[in-house]
Design goal:
- There is one protein chain.
- The protein is of the alpha+beta class.
- The chain contains four helices and ten strands; from the N terminus they run αααβαβββββββββ.
- A hairpin with a 4-residue loop joins β4 and β5.
- α1 runs antiparallel to α3.
- The protein starts with a helix and ends with a strand.
Length: 186
């Protein structure tokens, strides 16, 4: 109810209630359409104003959107220990080589994220792969220290130059390149 109608509601209650007109002995004959109008009691304008204030407005358009936002968190310390426990007890590789890969990576396959240098993020996949995601030049990877949010698309992937990563600090960046990191044995 709008505020104007709320102010007029008490005044409308002070108006006299509708009264049926007295019946007269001699009435000229009327057509049936006029008799139907007389059968419905008409309320005075003050009451109509109060009744209109309580009516629900007619909506002409309703729009429903479905949006799913996924949060990718940094890798936790127990997860790192579990990943290391499954590796053979030999010397760990410390150098990686980047290899070309497709333009998309599965969103459900990302287990965690870690900040790399400059404008790069390391995506740790559930199948034990490591993917490096290069961000726009204007972006700083340090903004993503606590993970990121991404809107899930119908295909369930994060793709180059399509999806925007939103950091919890407020930065928004696009991925410009995806590379798979493979350990160098040597």
């Amino acid at each position: 109810m709008n505020s104007f109608a709320a102010l007029l509601a008490p005044l409308a209650l002070l108006l006299p209630a509708p009264v049926d007109p007295p019946a007269t002995a001699e009435k000229p004959p009327e057509d049936s359409a006029q008799k139907a109008d007389d059968a419905v009691p008409q309320s005075p304008p003050g009451w109509r104003l109060v009744a209109d204030a309580f009516r629900i407005p007619n909506q002409s358009q309703v729009r429903i959107q479905r949006q799913v936002t996924v949060r990718i968190a940094p890798r936790s310390q127990p997860m790192r220990n579990n990943l290391l426990a499954t590796l053979p007890q030999s010397e760990l590789e410390k150098r990686y080589e980047s290899k070309k890969m497709g333009k998309c990576v599965s969103l459900a396959g990302i287990a965690g994220v870690q900040v790399d240098r400059d404008n790069r993020l390391l995506l740790f996949m559930r199948d034990r792969r490591i993917v490096r995601a290069n961000l726009n030049k204007k972006c700083n990877a340090r903004d993503f220290y606590s993970g990121f949010y991404v809107e899930q698309k119908k295909d369930g992937d994060i793709c180059v130059e399509r999806d925007e990563l939103k950091s919890r600090a407020g930065a928004t960046c696009e991925i410009t390149k995806l590379r798979r990191l493979v350990p160098i044995r040597g």
